[in-house]
Amino acid sequence: MIESRREQAKRLFDRLKSLSEKEIDLKLHLVAAELGIEYEDAFQWVYVTRPVSVSHGGNWPYDEDEDEPVADQDPYDLIPQVSLAEPLELESGTYDLSPEEIESVQSLGRVVRLGRRVVYDSRTDMYIVTLPRRTAPYLVPRKLHEEAQRAYSNADGRPVSASQVARMLGLTPSEFVSYRTAFRWRRDMLPLSAVEMSRLSPQEAAERVLEVKERAVRDLLEDAQQKQDADDAKKWRNFKAAALDYLRESVSDVFRLEPENIRPILTTSRYPTARLIIPLNDWQVGSFASKKSLRLGDDFNADVFREMIKLYQEELIRYVQHLRVDWGAPYVVLLGDLFHGLTGETVHKTQLAHSMREMGKQQLDITLDALRQICDTIVELFGPIHLISLPGNHEGWAAQFLGYVLKERYEHIRGCSFHISDSRTYHTLIDGSYYTFDHGASPESGVRGGKLARGGAKLHDQVKALVMARPDLLAEARRQRGGVYFVMGDQHHTLDESSTGVEIIKLPALPSGDLYADENLWYSRPAQAILYHTPSGLGHMHRIYLDHVFKEDR
Asked: pTM (2 decimals)?
């Protein structure tokens, strides 16, 4: 028998009788979940329906003759706002695990309640927001919140959809509706948060709004120039026409590895003490740039590349067999730019139109064959793999094709998983540690122009913003005492450094002695990296150097 709303409400209020008003505020979502009641209904009954009934002398839901009152006013509009000048005095503790522990956030600094569902912690510079259906509070860095508010306010004259703002914050569309309601956002609001307003004089606030609009004009001009450059790249259309036929042919040539053909050399454990994360990045296959752009003094050489791949496989096997651990299934991450120039230009706008007609089939053949060899070697060693495929700034949508071909080849092996994305950024938890894999960001990631800085404070701020795009994964990693890692390619430079609790790992590339590296005063030997991961986090980065493949006379 289906339970009526009145019967559900009775059960809810009977359960809440033993709680104080403060406890109801903090535990309502848990009680609703325990009773199998939608949080929105519970919220409406507690803060709107019953108060309206009582104010008119009723006793809903206990009075059987009284219909459920309906209020025209949004329930969140009934919540009084508390001034920033009035800190919320709370006991010591943490707020990492559940909304109840917001009560004990005072130990982390001065805390103010901006509404029933919003708290601001000035020491960590975080908003703490309780959202329906989330069992833990949502933590938002103030700068990310303010960036999203400016985008949603349309103050810069460029409309941003609600779904785009939701992605900026790492929320689902329905969660963003609750988030927007909690902060009382409107399209015509000022692009300044409550915290900003509390810290600025009226004159400073007005100047800040003008700065937002001036910056928007500069960004519009920059975007217009980028669009003009893209419109002039006729080579992209040439390549697309040349490659489509080959893509269809190549798919028909794919054969699957059936489970009965797999006999792993190593035995993977249900409780591994280590696993490998194997990024494959920046091969730049088919770099038909002019000879003067290459330190090695020649155009791309397929024979040299194949020799490098062969050596890489040999060194990978030697590295794995040298270790005596209980292995877990490895992660293979295609991190972009396995091709070179498929967007028709190098990073420094070197035009590649002269080679677009001839590069399609050759590049795909060479790259796909190398990927099959490497992945087959990994499968022969471990059995199942977890494959992540992300595009770079050179090959674009063709990277997805590579991912789908490998999926077709290995999907029938039990235990394999696949994530094939059109985004250059991917967030995931691995054994309790939070990894962000990123080719080098993209405009959609929120990084202006889609380019990460080469180093310094700007890079650290950009990395922090990208990592904070998934606060739920960050909170879970902290709960499990795991590490936080940002793994990137693109810059043809090897680096491992820590910043603000995030370990930044830049991966080496195969053609890392090219003009791009020269102009940035970098010299990283041609290499690929292997990440050795343990349940406690990243153990180390092992580099497989491949430059001794080249002959002295090259």
From this structure: 0.53
